[in-house]
Fold this protein.
Amino acid sequence: MSIGTSIAKARALAGLSIDELSAITKLRATLLREMEADVFTHCGGRMYARGHVRNIAVALKVDDKEFLRIFDEEQGVEKRTMRDLLVENNVMREPGETRKVSWKTLIAISLVTLSLVGLIQIIVSNSRVDQVAAPSASTSPTAVLTPSASATPSEQSTFTTGQGVEVIVNTTRAKSWLFVSDAQGRTLFSGQLSQGASKVFTSDSRLDLKVGNAGGVDLLVNGKQIPALGLDSQVVSVSYGVDS
C-alpha cells in the first residue's frame, strides 16, 4: 500500500473529509488530494513533504513513524547534510565540481575588465586633490541586520527592523532551519541554527517565522515563554505581533 493510499484510508477511517483534514493540518485541500494520489511535487521539496506526512499522521492519530517509513521507501528520502540539500536545490555546487566556461565568456570578461581598468584610470587622473566631503546619504527603509561582532553559534545576535515586537529563538534541544521576515516581507534571517544557538529578532509590527524542526526550538515572544511549537522534524509557521 502506497503512502498516498495509506493517508486516504486513514482519513476515511477517521471519518474526515479532505476539507476537514485541511482545516486541521492547515494544508491546502488541493495539496492533500495530490498527496493521496502519491504526487508530492508541490510540497516544496522532500523535507517539507516529509513534514506534511508526519503532520497528517498526527492529525489522523495513526503511527507517524510507519507513515514516514513508507514515505522514505517510496520517495527514496535519506538523511542528508545541509550542504547536500543546497546542492540538490542548485544553491551551491558540489565541492570539486568545476563549471565549464566558454571561450566567448572569457573574452567578454576580459573586455569588461579592461574597460573598467581604463575608466578607473581616467577618474583617478582627473580627480582633484582637494575634495569637499559629501553629506552622508540617508539610509533606506530596508531591514537592518546587526549581529554582534564576536557572535558564535551559542551567543546571541540581533536582527531588527523596529522595536514593536521581539522574538527570541533558542535551539535548546536540537539544531533547526529557520526563516524570519517582517510585515513588509523583508527577510531578516534564513539559514540553519546549530544546537544551543540564540537569536533575537525585532520589528515594528509583526514577525513571521518558519521553523524546520519545531521540536528542538523554544521561543520567547515579548518576554513571554511560548508553548512547544510541535514535534521533532515538524515544519511550523507562526506569526507574532505587538500584542502577542
About this structure: Strands lie at 144-146, 156-161, 165-170, 176-182, 187-193, 198-203, 206-211, 218-221, 224-225, 236-241. The helical segments are 3-13, 18-25, 29-36, 46-60, 64-75, 82-88, 103-126. The chain has a mean pLDDT of 82. DSSP finds seven helices and ten strands in the chain.
